[in-house]
Amino acid sequence: MVVIRSLYSVILNGIYFTGAVAWPLQPLDLAQHDPRTETQIPMTNATPVTLVADESFNFNVLAVLSGAPYEGADIGEVLVAANNIIEGDFESFHDAFNDLANRVHAQAIAIDDKKHPLSARNLFFKSAAYYRAADAYLHGNWSDPRIMTLWQKQAEDYNKAIALLHQPGERIEIQADNFTVPAIFFKTSCTGKRPTLILGQGYDGAMEDLYHVMGKAAVERGINVIVYEGPGQPTVRRYQNLGFIPEWERVISPVVSYLLTREDVDADKIALMGYSFGGFLAPRAAAFEHRLAAVIAIDGIYDFGESILSQFGEGPAELIRAGNKEAVDELGKQIQATANAPTTVRWGLNQGEWTFKTQSAYDYAVQAQRYTLKGVVDKIRAPVFIGEAESDIFFAGQATKLANELGDLATYHLFPNLDGAGEHCQIGASVMMNQVSLDWLEDVFAKTQ
Ligand SMILES: *[C@@H]1O[C@H](CO)[C@@H](O)[C@H](O)[C@H]1NC(C)=O
Ligand SMILES: *[C@@H]1O[C@H](CO)[C@@H](O)[C@H](O)[C@H]1NC(C)=O
C-alpha cells in the first residue's frame, strides 16, 4: 500500500501545498471504457462512495472494513470512528481507532469466554484489528513509544482470539539464516495431510490481518494456513530491528522446510500468496524456492523500484538517477515536516523509510531498485495467479507486465471497478477476491494428485 504521489515536482518548483489543492484525486473512473458498461448500462458509476475525504485515510478505513466478512471488523463502529478522523491529521486517525479499540477491548474482557467463547473471540479479533489500525500513521517518528505499546496490545488480544478458534491458532518462530520468522499456523478441521497456503504481507500490513483477508476463507475451504512476517514487516522490524531484504527466499524457504516437518501438511500442495508489495515478494521467493505448487500475487508486481520512481515523480526521479542524495533527502525531510502535504505522500515516505530502515528518502528509493524480477522471472516454475486491480493507484501496469513476462505460467485476472473490486488489493471486495483466487488454487491442487 505504498504511495508517494508525483507531487514532489510541485514542491521542487518552489510551490508548497496549501492543503488539498489538487487533492484528493478522484480514483480513475474507467467505467466508460468497460465494454460491458458501454453496451449494457452506460450510466453506471463504478466509483465507490468516499467515506473520508483524505484519500489515504479513506483507503485505510476501507481496508479495516474489508475484514468484516471474516471477523476483522464490524461496519457501524468503524464508520463512527471514521467520522472522527480529521483530514491530514495523523493523530486524529490514531485517536479514532485507539478509542474504538479500547472500547471493544473493554467489551471483550467483560465476557465470560467459557460461557460465550465465540462472542469473546469476535470481540478480541476486532479490538486487535483496531489497535493495528491505530498504529498505521505513527512511523514517522521511530521513537514514538506507541509503535511498541499498540503492537503488544494487538498481539495480546489476537492471541486470546486465536485460542478460542475451533482449531486454536499456533504462534511459531522459525529459524532463518540470521533472523527468525514469526508465524501463526491455522489448522483446518479436516483430518490427515491437507493443502497449505502461506500468506505474506507487503509494505505495511501485519500477518495478523491476513486471517481476515484470506486466512479464514482458506481454512473454511479445508486448506491449512500459515501467516508469517519477514524483515521490514511489523514484528521483525520492531523486535529484530531489521529492514526489508530483496532475497525473499531467505524468508520463505525456512517456512516451507518447517511445513514439511508437520504431519498435517501435504508436501505436494504448498502454495504462497503475497499481498500488496507481497505481490513482488512472493514471485521473487518462488524463483528460488521450487517446493511451492502455486503462487498467488494480490496483485502482481514485476518491478517495485520502477513504480517507486514513478511515484516520486519525474523531477525527483531524475535527481535520484543522477545520484543527488542531498537534494532528494532535503525534499523528503521538507515533505515529512509539512503538516498539510498530502497524507498519501507523507505516509508513503514515513513508512518506506521505516520499513527499509533508513532516514534518507534517497537511500529508500535506491534500495527499492533492487526489488525487481528482471533476470529472475524465468526461474519461476510454479503456476502464478496474478490479480490486477483496475484502479490500482500504486502499481498500475505492474501486474500486466508480470503476466507477460511469465507467459504460460500466469493466470491473469482483472478485478473490475464495476464489481467494487478495482481498489489496490481488492480492498472492500475480499469475498470476491477469495472466490476467484482460491477457486483457481483449488483447481491447481486438484491437478496435483
Ligand atoms: C519522537 O517521539 C519521542 C517520544 O515520544 C519524543 O520525545 C520526540 O520529541 C519525538 N520527535 C519528534 C521529532 O517529534
Ligand atoms: C545476514 O546474512 C546475510 C547473508 O547471508 C548477510 O548479508 C547479512 O550481513 C547478515 N546480517 C547479519 C546482521 O549478520
Automatic annotation (TrEMBL):
Stretches assigned to the Peptidase S9 prolyl oligopeptidase catalytic domain = 255-314
Which UniProt keywords are listed? Membrane, Transmembrane, Transmembrane helix
InterPro entries with a match to the protein in the record: AB_hydrolase_fold (IPR029058), FrsA_esterase (IPR050261), Peptidase_S9_cat (IPR001375)
Can the keyword Transmembrane be found in this entry's annotation?
Answer: yes
Q: Give yes or no: UniProt keyword Hydrolase.
A: no
Kindly list the biological process annotations in GO that this record carries. proteolysis
Give the stretches traversing the membrane.
7-25
Q: Which GO terms describe its molecular function?
A: serine-type peptidase activity
According to UniProt, the name of this protein is: Peptidase S9 prolyl oligopeptidase catalytic domain-containing protein
Highest classification ranks of the organism: Eukaryota, Fungi, Dikarya, Ascomycota, Pezizomycotina
